[in-house]
Amino acid sequence: MTDTPNLGQSAQPGQPVRAVLVGAGHRGVLYSRYSQVAPGELAITAIVEPDPIRRARWGDEFGIPESARFASLDDLPPAGVIAEAAINATMDPDHVVTAKQLLAGGYHVLLEKPIAQNAVDLLDLQAAQERAGTTLMICHVLRYAPFYLEAKRLVAEGAIGEPLTIEMAEHVSYDHMALAYVRGRWGNSERSGSSILLAKCSHDLDLMTWLCNAAPPARVASAGSRGMFIPARKPAGAGTRCLSDCAIERTCPYSAGRLYLDLEKWGEYVWEQAEHLGPELTLEQKQESLRTNNRYGTCVWGNDNDVMDRQALTVEFEDGVVGSFTLATNSPASSRTLTVIGTTGEIHGALESGELRVRRLTSDPTQAYLEEIHRIGVKGDMHGGGDHGLVADFVRVIRGEPASASTTQLADSINGHLLVFAAEEARKAGGWVTLADLTASNEPAPARQG
Fold first, then answer.
1. What's the pLDDT score for residue 153?
2. Structural domain tally of the chain?
3. Is pLDDT above 70 for 6?
4. In terms of domains, do 197 and 310 share one?
């Protein structure tokens, strides 16, 4: 792609924003399907995907001509030729380099999280976006989920006075943990480049920095450990692969056969490696895949996973608000909970229930407190209905329309990631880490001129 920027390309009045899908994985395709829901708002007019099978499959679904299907980002013309915007859903280690290349080409970019895998790259990308002058929004989709939108509205309107504390927790289900953070690509932090706090919980820490109208986070302390999927816990009779040499496979809750064949969970990830066998795999093909070379067929106690399976953080914001976050894994069911306590009341709820309870102090001698329940419709996806709301907001911003309260532009999203990086340093050091010290020590080298 040319290094000559074509800044601020915009859609023609009355026409949908044209976008290129960069990285045709599960998340990128999901965001791109907003073009099918709202064709007058978004059109996918190009694809960049090195895998020829995915490039052909999704190119066909989105009706992309062969001339606009590219194996490399280097072949993509600058913004304005076949697209004004890019949905960047590349793999985590590629986010910064591809985003910088797209920004330099004049594209408005919607970037999948995590933004970057370390503070140096994060701050470097921020500088690149400021130089480019185009939009860079981050896929923190939970800001657009109705549950968190309602919590944000209540806090912003002063329903509980001024926030004092915010408590958040994420419970990762046993099957999700086994899939992504034991067997999957994020199980080993050296291989993936990400801690579980970054890969899984950057959503949550972004929400913490956004929900309370708080000042920036000032410092953080953290503790965590790994003690579940370790060799010492491997049961007698367990083998190396569930469907090849395991004597307890039929009674093991983590069995790949049970989870991915009987219950048909996580198919979009489990069969991703077997795409070369065809779009519709037979049961025999799936069994053979798990039995032989599919990483999701391995024993959960026999992988090279090294990420934490429990972690807790305490955060102090510059205005005195105190936050806490707990990551717990191996839960029977996934859940996210939220409690915000303020000067005149509290908000409490769980994302999966679709309810927020608002309790307020009262001087009424007949009641200890006042309570009202806000019931929010819950969508059937993991992000509570926020995915397409995010893309719709991206389109609005590109068109120069007012951003929503959920806006995830880079400047609005950076503190949550800095909090992740500081928390990991604090966990390793066993003490408090200030974000000011983190940013001062990780400033990127100045860009060379000429």
1. 95
2. 3
3. no
4. yes
What was the pLDDT predicted at 446?
61
* Bridge partners (DSSP) listed for residue 310: 225, 328
Is 424 a residue whose pLDDT tops 60?
A: yes
Question: What mean pLDDT do residues 410-426 have?
Answer: 95
Q: Which amino acid makes up residue 227?
A: G
234 with 365: CB under 8 angstroms? Answer: no
Measured distance between the N- and C-terminal CA atoms of the chain, rounded to whole angstroms: 19
Integer Rg of the chain from CA: 23
In-domain check, residue 137: no
Residue 250 reports pLDDT greater than 80: yes
Question: Please, which pLDDT band fits residue 7 given cuts at 50, 70 and 90?
Answer: very low
User: Which residues lie below 8 Å from residue 422, measured CB to CB, with a gap of 6+?
Assistant: 217, 219, 220, 433, 434, 435, 438
**pLDDT tens per residue across span 187-241:** 999 999 999 999 999 999 999 999 987 789 999 999 999 999 999 999 999 999 9
Peptide bond into 365 cis (omega under 30): no
* Strand partners for 172: 329
H or E element at residue 219: strand 217-225
What are the Cα distances from residue 125, in Å, to 106, 335, 437? 15, 32, 19
Mention every residue, 6+ apart, whose C-beta is less than 8 A from residue 8. 106, 133, 134
CA–CA gap between residue 441 and residue 356 (Å, rounded): 40
Q: How far is the C-alpha of 60 from the C-alpha of 331, rounded, in Å?
A: 39
Residues 88 and 201 in one domain: no
Residues 97 and 160 in one domain: no
- Same structural domain, 210 and 250: no
Amino acid identity of residue 210, one-letter, is W
Distance CA 347, CA 374 (A): 10
Residues in the chain, total:
450
Per DSSP bridges, beta strands 345-350 and 310-317 are unpaired
Range of the domain at 41: 17-112
Above 70 in pLDDT, residue 16?
A: yes
User: For residues 410 and 56, is the Cβ–Cβ distance under 8 A?
Assistant: no
Exposure string for 34-51, b = 16+ CB within 10 A, e = fewer: bbeeeeebbbbbbbbbeb
In the block, which residue shows the tokens 């490399």? 72
Please tell me what DSSP assigns to residue 440. Answer: H
pLDDT tens figures, 306-342: 999 999 999 999 999 999 999 999 999 999 999 999 9
117, part of any domain: no
pLDDT at residue number 202: 94
